Amino acid sequence: MRNCFDCMGNWFGGASRKSSLAVSPATGTCAVGERAGKENLAKGSIPVISCEGACIRGEIARQAANMVAKHGNFKRCCHGELFTVPDSSMAEWGKNAPKIVCIDGCFLKCHSRVLENLVRPSQLIVFDALSHYQKYNDVFDIDDVPEEERKAVAREVADWVIKCVEEGSIPSNKNRGGCNCSC
Predict the structure, then answer these.
(1) ∠ at Cα 171 (119, 66), nearest 5°?
(2) What residues contact 165, with CB distance under 8 A and at least 6 apart?
(3) Would you list the DSSP string of 15-42?
(4) 43: how many CB neighbours lie within 10 A of its CB?
(5) Phi, psi of 117 (to 5 degrees)
(6) CA–CA separation, 1 vs 18, rounded Å?
(7) pLDDT above 80 for 153
(8) How far is Cα 73 from Cα 77, in angstroms, rounded to an integer?
(9) pLDDT band at residue 17, thresholds of 50, 70 and 90?
(10) Largest pairwise CA distance in the chain
(11) CB–CB of 88/29 below 8 Å?
(12) In terms of Cα–Cα distance, which of 19, 74, 56 is closest to 151?
């Protein structure tokens, strides 16, 4: 087993709350992921990773990331491959890109906490989608929010992310999400 990270002590309020994720070695690579990783690395595309959580907040982050990835030089990066297949082209792209955008769905910031242990801090641009749109704090089920509303909120988050990255007004990694721009 390979430990991706051993301790999240300070983030969780002290060394007494440790988190460890063991990942079994991959037995191969994804052919499509290999092609996409090589292509995106060669083009200098900006990887976009998002929360993929089961709740409405994860769904909005996921949809927003898909929208961002259709804009300019942004492309979706497979978080599963980046996190668990360290010798893949997808992982090489994510680890070597000058910037990597992470759209977290809520205050838990699961994906950015993992990414902090895989990429250089100067690469990582973290967006806390929930802190931007501030809705659905008492909703879990995706279907409890109408599809058109989900899409509209995801579009709002995507536009925020694109604007902040393009203007260079990126979120502060100290507060892990709040954007420094006026959007």
Answers:
(1) 70
(2) 46, 99, 101, 125
(3) TTS----EEPPPSS--HHHHHHHHHHHH
(4) 11
(5) -100, 0
(6) 17
(7) yes
(8) 12
(9) low
(10) 46
(11) yes
(12) 56
Q: What is the pLDDT of residues 61-109, one digit of tens each?
A: 999 999 999 999 999 999 999 999 999 999 999 999 999 999 999 999 9
Its CATH architecture, for the domain 44-167, is: 3-Layer(aba) Sandwich (3.40)
Q: What is the pTM of this model?
A: 0.83
- 34-67 pLDDT, tens digit each: 999 999 999 999 999 999 889 999 999 999 999 9
Whole-number Å distance between alpha carbons of 99 and 95: 9
In the structure encoding, which two tokens stand for residue 38, read together?
Answer: 């090589």
DSSP states along the chain = -EES----TTTTTSTTS----EEPPPSS--HHHHHHHHHHHHHTPEEEEE---SSHHHHHHHHHHHHHTTSTTEEE--HHHHHH-TTSHHHHHHHHSS-EEEEE-STT-HHHHHHTTTS-TTTEEEEEHHHHH---TT---GGGS-HHHHHHHHHHHHHHHHHHHHHT-PPPTTTTS--SS--
